[in-house]
Amino acid sequence: MKTKIDLLIHNVSIASMTDNGLPYGQIQNASVAVKSGSICSITKSPFDEFEPEKVVDGQGQWLLPGFIDCHTHLVYAGNRAKEFEMRQQGKTYTEIAQQGGGIQSTVNATRRATEAELLEDSLKRARRLVEEGVTCIEIKSGYGLDLDTELRMLKVAAEVAEKLPVTVLPTYLGAHTVPVEYKNNPDAYVDYVCDTVIPKVAEQGLAVSVDVFCESIGFSPQQCEKVFIAAQEHDLNIKAHVEQLSDLKGAKLAAQYQAISVDHIEYLDEDDVSVLANSDTVAVLLPGAFYYLRETQLPPVNSLRQHNVPIAIATDLNPGSSPIASILTTMNMACVLFGLTPEESLRGVTVHAAKALHLENKGQIAVGLDADLCLWDIEHPCEFSYGINQIRPTRKWIAGNEA
Q1: Interval 93-111: pLDDT, tens
Q2: Whole-model pTM?
Q3: With contact defined as beta carbons under 8 Å apart, do 373 and 396 qualify?
Q4: Could you read off the pLDDT of 120-161 as tens digits, one per residue?
Q5: How far is it, in rounded angstroms, from Cα 42 to Cα 17?
Q6: What are phi and psi of 139, to 5 degrees?
Q7: Using CB atoms within 10 A of its CB, is residue 37 exposed (0-12), middle (13-18) or buried (19+)?
Q8: Residue 48 above 90 pLDDT?
């Protein structure tokens, strides 16, 4: 008797991103069977054993897991385009801030925005990512810095997944910067984050992770440790912006608290890379911010390779330092600016990005995993990192349903 399935995609080359001994986890001339939203079979043999409800001839195209953008700040109001113009005209950061610019301008605009206004703006940005084959997005809060706005941002993040064919993982980033209300007492703000907001976020189920900005212009390691402890007490994953501008040993601290990822890490000391390897923490590189801020300090990519630390990459989509709504552009940047290979770049937005979000059911094409799939009319997977804004998926499926 034939096995009934929902979908059969045949006549495809697969970049499975599994470790099958071949580059990109390649499987040539293959078929993928999908049932109840999951991949139930991958075969190169005839598929006579299946009775599919729907059959798709891939016409020799490449089938890949959907891309995962594992670090974004795409929920916010307003933009900082005028500040960009001011910087290019020679204005300093201080001068821009004195004229109402900087992160506080985004906080002000986000606090004023209604939930409907935030959603409308966020959907515009999210659609750009989805167009390029992104099927899962991590979205951080952090532009409210008060209870009401932070909760509103996280609710909007969830609503993005209701409006678009994409999975959303929300992250609470209250420790993003010190709000003006606590300018003279940042420790009190950290207490507010830990004692008031994190419990509410957990109680309402609005986030799966908690993030911090551990930096001299953000929060100290001691303050971040308080946030990590509060996150663990409420069963929330830990993520951290660390070593972007200096080495405060934030990555080492986060790894000691079993962080699922440490992000930016340009100033990560090579002696601390082994700590990441031993803690199973993913290194997330954000070349968009590196490019946009014209940084020069490169992350320790060779050391990450030597210690087999998984390397993910993400857009860091945000209004101030990486207004980039393109995962494909980010993949090219990771290769050109950081020296990643095209395969490392592709793994960085699939299997390693999934690991950076603690998602065991996404990021690869393998039996038992979610059928988040994209079909691409390309000759080879290296094309994803080679060109800029040249390709789009020809078909997409989320949990086996065509999107």
Answers
A1: 668 877 778 888 999 999 9
A2: 0.97
A3: yes
A4: 999 999 999 999 999 999 999 999 999 999 999 999 999 999
A5: 14
A6: -130, 125
A7: middle
A8: no
Angle ∠(9,12,15) on CA atoms, nearest 5: 110
Of 50 and 62, more confident: 62
User: 171 forms bridges with which residues in the sheet?
Assistant: 140, 209
Amino acid sitting at position 311: I
Task: Give the pair of three-digit tokens for residue 139.
Answer: 């979205």
b/e code 145-166 from CB counts within 10 Å (16+ = b): bbeebbbbbbbbbebbbeebbb
State CA 178 to chain mean position distance.
Answer: 24
**Residue 115: pLDDT over 70:** yes
Euclidean distance between CA atoms 135 and 398, whole angstroms: 7
Average model confidence (pLDDT) across the chain: 96
Per-residue 3-state assignment (H helix, E strand, C coil) for the chain: CCEEEEEEEEEEEEECCCCCCCHHHEEEEEEEEEECCEEEEEECCCCCCEEEEEEEECCCCEEEECEEECCCCCCCCCCCHHHHHHHHCCCCHHHHHHCCCCHHHHHHHHHHCCHHHHHHHHHHHHHHHHHCCEEEEEEECCCCCCHHHHHHHHHHHHHHHHHCCCEEEEEEEEECCCCHHHCCCHHHHHHHHHHHHHHHHHHCCCCCEEEEEECCCCECHHHHHHHHHHHHHCCCEEEEEECCCCCCCHHHHHHHCCCCEEEECCCCCHHHHHHHHHHCCEEEECHHHHHHCCCCCCCCHHHHHHCCCCEEECCCCCCCCCCCCCHHHHHHHHHHHHCCCHHHHHHHCCHHHHHHCCCCCCCCCCCCCECCEEEECCCCCCHHHHCCCCCCCCEEEECCEEC
Radius of gyration over alpha carbons of the chain, in Å?
21
- Is residue 272 within 8 Å of 252, Cβ to Cβ? yes
Rounded-to-integer distance, Cα 73 and Cα 322, Å: 9
